[in-house]
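Example 5.3 — Cytosol aminopeptidase
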Amino acid sequence: MSDKNALIQPDRGQKAIAIHLVDKDGLDTFLKERTPAQRAALAAHKFEADGYQYAIMPDGDDWAVAAGVANTAELSSWCMSKLAQKLPAGTYRRAGGEPGPAIFGWITGQYRFERYLSEPDEEGPRVLLTGEPASISAITAEAEAAMLVRDLVNTPAEDMGPAQLEAEAENLHKTFRAEIRVTRGDALEHEFPMVHMVGRAAARSHAPRMIELEWGDPKHPRLAVVGKGVCFDSGGLDIKPGSGMLLMKKDMGGAAHALALARLIMHNQLPVRLHLLVPAVENAVSGNSFRPGDVLRSRAGISVEIGNTDAEGRLILADALARAGENEPDLVIDFATLTGAARVAVGPDLPALFTREDATADGLLAAGKAHDDPCWRLPLHEGYREYLKSEVADINNAGSSGFAGASTAALFLDKFVPKGTDWAHLDTFAWRPTEKPGRSKGGAALGLRATWHMLRQRYDKLEG
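Solution (predicted structure tokens):
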């Protein structure tokens, strides 16, 4: 992931192409203020200020851009993204105002995943100027975090296994002087038995591990961030069909979100004691794969009957959540590409959100709405716990009915989070099946900004 600071620069009056943002209500006034040549150019483009529509028009000895937006008074993160993708390389400024939140989409609109291309795009950057230089660092950090998620998810499993997730955590450890602990081998089997069981069938190069990182003042509220790190999911012995494996490089999307959120927290010096946990495995098939009908012990001492080996993500999360709860955190947040049922319920764009506390849900939903990263709350309905009953163990990892799959998965996790702990679970897709302005097809950060801004609202008040 390249440094994106160069894409946003302070406006010091340097030469730049003007971008005029226009909404439907202001179109007539805008046209009246244009020269005859400009009106002719806009008419030739059939410019009607539709969203993402843009047109080139003469501007003295140079040229300018007219771009349609929904509301010039309330810009979205994405309203200038198409311009960042389509305009020629060069320097631009918004005429008559600041780009504000559109800076985020200006950066992410220029994202390209080119790691495996022999001839990557050589076109130069589109630079956007702002008269609010103090905002550049924070919003650029957000964009870089979102693109980190994209990079990690887009990378194939051969090059993004448990060891590579560990390397990403090592980078955070070195950059921010955090404490790191990685548990593998015999110690993993003893301390995190379900992580070990899920990952033990993988090749030695993709051996399972628990990655933990701690940072911040121990006097500050303890925040645990957990990310599901299934680097590839074959389904195990309940093997997926070939079509079901095509996107399974993205099954570590929860870990990617957790790592990116940890980076934001440490970069911005949020006053918390951060505990990052990434259980990293590959759910492979071999002679020592765990089996349907097996009963696994967990770190929490709860026995789990395996109803389906393809419901492995909740197993490794259960051990991680139990570990997180041992330190009496103020809040636990987990990200996971957990269920297809969540995608059926809310589609690819919306993370399914589960929380114990209404106030935590309200904070996440409000932050998502304010920062163009919406979530949708689903129920932790007590009546569905019966779907997880087992006759031979404390709980089954797969629901006994075809109903409420996202909720039953969340209820499984809920059993491993200590009672009374404030906890939020985001069942996110981490993938965008079709391109939208500023949001490329492929790996996607969904729920990251909502969570980050909720945390800022919750903990920034502690500063000073």
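Remark. The first helix runs from residue 27 to 32.
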